[in-house]
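protien #1 (seq + structre)
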Amino acid sequence: MAVSQPQITAEDVAVTLAVRQDLGEANEAAVIAEFLERVGTTIDARVDARVAARVKPQRSQHSHQLPFFSLVFGIPITAIASSQGLAGIAAAWGGIAAINLADALRR
């Protein structure tokens, strides 16, 4: 779903120029400052949208890697830890769970 971004149109510029002429030199600085504020807000919104579009795919792609590899490497780790009995298996999987929890909380 695309979110519309604020835009400065030619009509906005024309209105600003008309207001500037109507109000005269005494208010010229205020009219220009208000217009530049709107331009700055528009640019900020565009930059925020572009940054958000680039960050989201990277996070979602990374989010499934650690749990997947934890399960893959958990099998041989379980085999090795089983030589210590149930306590060894519990310690191994407790460590795997702690690593995954720390990674999830980091994001």
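ok now protien #2
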Amino acid sequence: MPIFALLWKPFVIILAMTAIGVLLYLRVARKLLILDSPNGRSSHNLPTPRGGGIVIALTFLVGLVYAQVTGSLALRDALALGGAGTLAAGVGFIDDLRGLPATLRLFVHFLVAAWLLWWFSPLPIFPTGPVGTSLNALISALLLVWLLNLYNFMDGINGIATLEGISTCLGILLVYAVSGHQLLGTAPILLLASLGGFLFWNFPRAQIFMGDVGSGFLGAVLGGMCLQASHRASSFFWCWAVLLGIFIMDASLTLCRRLLDRKSPTDAHCSHAYQIFSRQRGEHAPVSIAVFVINLLWLLPVALLIATHLLSGPLGLCIAYCPLLLIGLKVGAGVRN
């Protein structure tokens, strides 16, 4: 039986819980003045309630408990994803409320990576053996920490981080379906429900932002699901990397070009490609929709070719990323504020 047929009821419940939970949180945030004020990296002009991602985290965790109790998700997977998500969301929520030193946030992010690697083991990138095992662990930890942070960097206009998560979950569910690994779809379905409930309040006009709690949580959970799947089939690592291509390429290219210009990576800026496009358009919605469409019409077909072994992972990644790289270079990502 398809996994969604087993989970459609909790999907609807979690979606509704998230939508209602965000409404309640929105009232509290306004009353307590938990607001995101415009700054050097903002693409909005008015103070907006932030931290709404805590609702995404809580409803997803409820879904994990349900899935584990009903046998739809292994205990190991629930503990790995739940623990990583809780750590990332916790430090992010505190940062949203009162701010934390960057070094402390980075330390917790490495703890998140260590927790995931403890349960899922490192990515099988290099051959096994003492050296290969150490390199796998180091590179896996760095990739996880980078994903966690880049998701925060890319959460800068209405709906973009939510739609990226939704399109990635939809894409990976189709990848799992065509490759005969539908049972891996439990966590993506639960996350899709939480994100769907949040999207109502976040797009096309954002009445609330997910904040560091939401972006960090999504980076941790998406990275964890990638690790979970990569040990079932190594091709899934490349599928995940392709589906997250817009966020990975834009954030990585922007950071590299700023470092080459000897700019501090911690300085606030608005030089990501998506921010430049949103200023050129004069609105956020077309850019966020474009990300969603590109994910499904360009990146997803490449991921499906990798999953069905019609393309090798590295070659598929190059094919998927080359147009994104050219677009980023042409628009001036990392050099135009």
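The mean pLDDT is 93.
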